[in-house]
Amino acid sequence: MTDANEGRILTERDGQLFLIGFDRPAKLNGFTPAMMRALGAAYTEFEGSDARVALVHAKGKHFTAGLDLPRMAPHMEKGETLFPAGSVDPFDLKPPFRTKPVVFAVKGITYTLGIELMLAADVVIAAADCRFAQLEVKRGIMAAGGATIRMVERAGWGNAMLHLLTGDEFDAPTALRFGFVQEVVPAGREFDRAKEIALKIAAQGPLAVAATIANARLARRHGIDAAVDDFLPVQGRLMASEDVKEGVRSFVEKRPARFQGR
Fold first, then answer.
1. N or C: which terminus of the chain carries fewer CB neighbours within 10 A?
2. What is the DSSP letter of 31?
3. Residue 51 lies in a domain
4. Distance, CA of 54 to CA of 47 (rounded, Å)
5. How many domains, the chain?
6. pLDDT per residue over 71-125, tens digit each?
């Protein structure tokens, strides 16, 4: 997707995994308009495929330096969205929302857009050499991909504002303490560890995985009561599925379940 000068978003199937790769390493994977459009297309392709989990990673030593501001500024001035109409939002802010899980492997420089994308994912594995910064205020703009919401949710007001309002860099242990990432591993191990987790998720019942994500999202957007009200109806639908029958059989037969998503 996209040409080499504009950067590319690579997509690849690996069994039940759908790999999404940032490919503009000479520019620290700085995002161009073409890459933004291609990322939306990649998430949409994943959602429409039979792949069970997406694994987002990057080529080169760094995850992303964020937006290529000179290329992006004209679109930002016009308030344009760069995702194709009807495409799944990688920032998980506007419908249509994805229904399947996304795991991230981040490394090196992971700035602005990179943080906002990973905070919109489900599980993030960070290399120990990660350098994070939400530095939009240093460019005179506001973080508009969800950081003002999710950094406060995860880290609390003071910790979020410390970095949102100063743009100061923070390291992987700090990101772990704030709940922005779920594990920190030695540099070079982040992709393999993220793939291990993605494969483990892919082995679970896909209907149950989707229901879990949907219920957690319901609680976040509409409150705990809405999520609780959904417990019994959703569980009832799951209990009628072939996956539950397989889950019971695998328990009795003391073997891993082979879920089909139906």
1. C
2. B
3. yes
4. 9
5. 2
6. 777 767 767 677 878 899 999 999 999 999 999 999 999 999 999 999 999 999 9
Report H helices in 107-223: 113-119, 147-155, 157-166, 172-178, 190-202, 206-222
225: CATH: 1.10.12.10
Tell me if 133 sits within 8 A of 87, measured CB to CB.
no
Q: Report the C-alpha gap between 92 and 15 in whole angstroms.
A: 25
- Alpha carbon distance 200, 87 (integer Å): 27
CA angle 51, 53, 56 (to 5 degrees): 115
Residue 204 buriedness (CB in 10 A; 0-12 / 13-18 / 19+): middle
pLDDT tens per residue, range 183-204: 999 999 999 999 999 999 999 9
Given a contact cutoff of 8 angstroms between Cβ atoms, the answer to whether 119 and 154 are in contact is: yes
Domain-embedded: residue 2? no
In this structure, the answer to whether residues 24 and 98 fall within a common structural domain is: yes
Whether residues 228 and 134 share a domain: the answer is no
Q: Which domain holds residue 230?
A: 206-253
Give dist(CA 217, CA 224) in Å, integer.
Answer: 10
Contact (Cβ atoms closer than 8 angstroms) between residue 82 and residue 48: no
pTM over 0.70, yes/no: yes
